[in-house]
Amino acid sequence: MSKSDDIELKPLGNYTWEIPKKGEMRVPGIIYADEATVKELLKDLAEKTTGNFTPALKQVRNVATLPGIVKASMAMADIHPGYGFAIGGVGAFDLNEGIISVAGVGFDINCGVRVLRTPLYRNDIEKIKEQLASQLFRDVPAGLGSTGDLRLNEDEIDKVLTEGSRFVIDMGFGFPEDLEYTEENGCISGAEPDNVSHRAKQRQFKQVGTLGSGNHYLEVQYVDEVFDEEAAKAYGIEKDRVFVAIHCGSRALGHQIGTDYLKTLEEASRKYKIPILDRELVCAPIKSAEGKRYHSAVNCGINSAFANRQVISHLTRDAISRVAGIKPEEIELLYDVAHNTCKIEEHKVGSVTKKLLVHRKGSTRAFGPGRIEVPRRYRDVGQPLLVGGSMGTASYILRGTELGMEKCFGSAIHGAGRALSRMKAKKKWKGVEIINELKAKGIIIKSRSKSGVAEEAPGAYKDVDRVVDIMHRSGVNAKVARLKPIVCIKG
Q1: What is the band of 49 on the pLDDT scale with cuts at 50, 70, 90?
Q2: Whose CB among 63, 202, 280, 310 lies 3.0–4.6 Å from 84's, allowing a Cys bridge?
Q3: Bridge partners of 482?
């Protein structure tokens, strides 16, 4: 048993640790970690604060006190402090007794990863990577406040919010078959644009089809190693094959939705007398008028992010086809899955199947074999999980497992997880030095912000191999392949 600041961590085996239910906690906390990670978490806790955030262990404990939470407050191996919920956090809530929280979704609603499978191999790309990097940098808008060539009015934005990927595919951005390989088929129901402010919509008029800044990226990668031949065959993965990962979300619209509803949920917390240990956890009952409005607005943000990644896919396909001489339709969608959402899902709780509102904050949906939500082609092996590393290390494709369905509502890590804050990273590294170092390793970085590159330096992130191994060895996620970067486009 490890302990700091009155929070105990009890080892359960298989890289799983428990914060035992105590005091105001309604359920225990469950954390997937190795001993080194636990030491880091306890050190942060002993120091009382990490940057501007409450320590991650305390955040897991605080979420465990919220009304209607089911089974446990959980955190995946990429755990680090977030806003209210730890990043990597998972909380599932009973629809009748539970709550909905901005902190459990995040401000970049449906930030996620989309991976495209190309017919190209590493040797094909190495010959043209400089030209390809320049073409992608020209064609895919990126950077803080970036805007694209697609201009939408408010009526069209409303259609994006209700129809998601379908709307932009009908406009010519991609192919209908992309929908089968997008979570929720690229459109979640229950989106009501009237519950999204004019200001939020206004901020999105020119941002559909843009990467944005921060940790968002477009990366050309090759398969470095295959671990699971059966799943790799189902996913169309083979050694040295080239894939393209797109990581971004709902841009300014999602952030504005979160900002708008913080005040609404703060008032709801008082109105419904919801006990919260951290003001960042303001929330409303799921079935309250306030909760329903926020949930419908989140669904709008989810659909907007799907549409955003769909348009970027189209721009990416066109850029690659021009440089590599292949047809856009030869570049297929492997999968698109989010890691900042709350969604109603069916899960077993004991021997009973229940509908729950599952918040995943920096955690990916990871459904196992047999789930109807998984595309038919992948259903026997489970859903692909798309895990980003850093622009100088590796990314992974994992799969969902039956144990993961049982233990953590079919959830997974979403990336390596930050080890240093952006401020500390900028003090430690210079963007130009990082670009030159990676170029010497054969990785081309194109960015509109040198300070942004410093913030995202590979050393600012945890070791992705170690984080993935924790989840793999716990059995809740399973390794399929590791991919390494060739070209990375950032804001």
Answers
A1: low
A2: 280
A3: 225, 396
